Every structure is written in C-alpha cells, then in structure tokens.
Amino acid sequence: MKILSYLLVYRRLLLIVLTPLLLLPLPLIIKTKEAECAYTLFVVAIFWLTEALPLAVSALLPAFMFPLFGIMGSKEVASSYFKDFHLLLIGVICLATSIEKWNLHKRVALRMVMLVGVKPAWLMLGFMVSCAFLSMWLSNTSAAAMVMPIVEAVAQQIIRAEVEADALEMSCSNGSVNPALELDEHIEECESTEWKEKQINGYNNSVASTVCTVENENEKGNEQQNLPPAEAERKGRKDKYDGILKVMCLCIAYSATIGGLTTIAGTSTNLIFTEHFNSRYPDCQCINFGSWFILSFPIGVIILLLSWVWLQWLFLGFDFKNMFKCSKKKTAREEASSRVIQEEYKKLGPMSYPETVTLVLFILMTILWFTRDPGFIPGWSSLFPEYKSYIMDSTAALVIGVLFFIIPAKTLSKTSNGENTLFGYTPLITWKEFQSCMPWEIAILVGGGFALADGCEVSKLSEWVASKLTPIGSLPLWLVILISCLIVTSVTEVASNAATITIFLPILSPLAEAIHVNPLFILIPATLCTSFAFLLPVSNPSNAIVFSYGHLTVMDMVKAGLGINIIGVAVVMLAIMTWIVPIFDLYTYPSWLPNIPSTNDTGL
C-alpha cells in the first residue's frame, strides 16, 4: 500500500519520465523523419491529454524537439507559434476586457432576462439566451463566471419565497395564532445557520451558497416517520427546490458552451480551426466570420432550445399548459424572481459613458466582421483591390482593439461656475487589465499545435497518414463524419477542447483528402463537436465554475450532459448534410485541393 501511495503522489512525474522513454524505440528503430515527427506528436499529445505538464509547457516541446531531430529549424518553428489567430484573439480580448470592466455584460444579461419574464421555464430560457449571447463574444468561462452570481441570487430568492409560502400555509392549516411570527422565526433560524455555514466554508455570497432550507427539511424528514398530510406535501417539494438549483446551474454551464459555437471568436476551438484551415488551404477564402456565423448560428439556436426542453423535462417536468398560461397574478416564486432582477438592474444605474462607448465599439467590430467579405455582395475589403486578400478578420479586431487603449474613460464635466473639470487621462482599458484577461496559456497551446501541424507537413508524416487512411473511403461519407464526431466528442470530455482539436485537425485533413471529399465536410462537424464537453465538471472550465457552487453532483451532470451530447451530435449531423452543403458547395471537389484519385466508392 505504501508503494501505491508513492506512485499516486508521483504519478505525474512518472508519466513525464516514462512517456518519452517508452516511445523512444520509435525514432531509434525506424530512423525516418516521419517517425521522429510522430514521436514528438505522441509525446505532446499524451502530455496534453493527461495534463502531466501544464498545457502551455507541453506546447513548447516541439520548439526544441523539431530542431534536435532536424525536422525544422528554430526560426521556422518559432514563426509557427504566432499567427493571425493570435492577432484576432488580442482584438477580441480587448473588447472582452472593456465589457467586463464596465459591467456591460451584467446590464445585457439582466435586460434579456427581464424581456422574457419570470415564469420558471421562461426565466431559465432568458438566462440561457443571455449567457449564450455573451459567450459569442467573450470566452465561455468568462460568460459563465459573469452570469452565475446573478442566477445564484435569483435561485436563492425563488426558494426562499417558496419556503415562506409553504410555512405560512402550514401555519394557517395547523391553526396557529400568529403564523407571521412563526414564519419570521423560521427564516431567522435559517439565515443564522446559513451564515455560520458560509463562515466555516469561507464562501462569499456569490459563490457556493448553501440552501439551508432544503437541508433543514431533510433533517426534519429523517426525524419524523409519520408526517401529517400538509407536512408530507411540503417535504415532497424538496426535490422541486433541488431541481430549481440544479437546472439553473446546468443551463448556464451548457449555454456558455453552446453560445461559443456560433462565432469564430466565441471559443478557442473555432479560432484554431480557422487558422489551421487557412494555413493548410491558403487558396480557399471561404471561412470567415460571416460564413461561419451563417452555418453555425442555426445549429446553436436549435441545440439551445432542445437543451432547454431537455433540462426542463429532466429536473422540473415540462408542463406546456402552465408555461403558456396567461395569468396576471404572479406566484411567490415569480414575485421573488422579478424583485431580485429589478433590484440588480437598479443597482447598475443609468448607462455610463464608458458602457456606451464599449457598446458602440462592440457593434462596430461586429459590423466590420460581417461586412468584410460577405460573399453575396462586395465587402469593405474591396476598397483595397490591390491587397484585398491581405485583410482578415484580425485586421478589424485590432483596429477596434487599439481604440480601447486610446479613447478616454472619462469626459469633461462642468462645475457650477461653468468651468470644465479636468481628469487625469485614463483610457477605457489599461495594459495591466488587458494582461489579466489575456489567456496566454491558450495562445501558447495553439502555437504549439500550429508548430506540430507544420512539422507533420515538412516531415511528410501527414502524407503517410493520408495513405494509411485511404481504405476508410469505402465507408459511406455520413458514417465517416459520424465516427469522427463521436471520437472527438469522447476525447474532449477528458482533455481540453483546444488540445483535442489541435491533435485531430492534422489527422482529419489528410483523411478528407485521401477519400477525395471537401475537407470542410469532416472538419466543420469535428470542430463543432469538440466543444461538446458536457459530461463532467473537469470537461471544461464552465462546468467547473457552476459545479463549485455546490448544488450539483457528478451524476447530475453526467445524466444531463449525455442527453445534450446526443442532441448536439444529431443537430450537427443534420446541419452538415442539409443547409451547410449549399453554403460551401460541399458535394463539388474544390479546385484548391490536390487532385487525388478517388477511393470513395459509396460516395455521397
């Protein structure tokens, strides 16, 4: 047992040492550039999947392994670590930093929730839509972290209102002389218990609040074997309270991921795919912000709505009659929700000058992305006909991003004497604030993936892989796509999304070329499915954030996530076989691909 405990403690160190040693026969025996590149790829992939080393550190391994093996020079490898992707990421993070700093995200989220109303199902949908919208422009992690405190406050108030109503009803049914007094005592006792519990656990009001009311009901239920009918009915609502908390948490975790699917900047996997595709197929200019939005927005909307129905049915029951019933009188739960949301919105006050400027720049960046090269009409990039291909989405992102460092955060204000009051010049965001939001680990991780992809090309490893994958062309195309989707969906549950897509893109691109189909037929579904990390708290940071609030068990997440994984893969398969086909003319072998003899007998 002592040996096992030592192995458990030093398992990462053992993995770091043993992985290169056990794989070392590959380059020593075969002694080809393909084998040496494969050795590097396997070592990095294993470290990424197991996270034995930090992801960014593992991504730096090709920077010294490729020169040592003679695959690429140091200067060539170094140039792979910084690409157009990084410039686009910098521009997007400038926008995200300003949105977070000036609380524009909170105003948008609360306003969206206020628009849909406070009925439980619609309230849940409102939070899902607002979180998904934020994750379209911010990182999924940031979107979940921003919205979750608001959801927690609303959920706690809903349960408190339900408990107050139940307690009052029970007191009246038992013939209590002063039900209001008993209710106050019950609430005070609960608040005292909850405060002590928070002090012990070290949590604040916005993280991991404990619903003491539900726990008190559990204790009472265990103590009393024969409950009166009113008490039995009240105890029966425990599952209802638990369901409210669980469904509110899960809807934020999943909507943050789903929203990121719809824009190139929404998640790192989309950015990695775009850079990989444009680097591997430079003659194809079909993937841009507008084309990606057109293909992925319907997918995101359908998955979001089906996920809403699934979560509602799984935890609360899907009652169409009550959902669409028009009633002017609000229940205690609805009154509590409305009160909290209105109070939170009032705290924000009127829209400030920095919020207004941030919103204007956000709209301007979006317009520039959509109108750069829409395809059906000439875009603004056609104003530069001699070097139109030089202008990318990163160009617009950087132009707007730099403005955040120039535009002042305060305007001149006049005193009672009519004189202008001078403020020290401070831009909308500072470099220190930008650095705190910039995901440097993802930037280096993606750079390592590009270096691996370039090494596979130079060493001819990708050609070797393509030749070995040629027999797969005998399978129907839809089955090849489905297998690819299922594999990446499974792997991404235990590995980071960015690492998963970085590993599989250099494999799936040669596969598409080998079976003589448009690479987009396989790469688009695989990229979308890489984001479907819904099963476990460790699958992605959004899941971990909501799990940390203490309302979910692992089985809750597995049960809900499995259904959404199935929904996601099914919708992606439907999309790639229907409306995505005419967008990129997928059934036609593109001219920007090498003309390889077809082995796809069963065809399309």
From TrEMBL:
Pfam families: Na_sulph_symp. InterPro entries: Na/sul_symport_CS, SLC13A/DASS. Keywords: Ion transport, Membrane, Sodium, Sodium transport, Transmembrane, Transmembrane helix, Transport. Coiled coil: none annotated. It is a multi-pass membrane protein. The chain crosses the membrane at residues 12-30, 42-69, 81-99, 119-138, 244-273, 293-320, 352-370, 390-407, 477-508, 520-539, 560-584. Belongs to the SLC13A/DASS transporter (TC 2.A.47) family. NADC subfamily. PANTHER family: SOLUTE CARRIER FAMILY 13 MEMBER, SOLUTE CARRIER FAMILY 13 MEMBER 1. This is Solute carrier family 13 member 1 isoform X1.
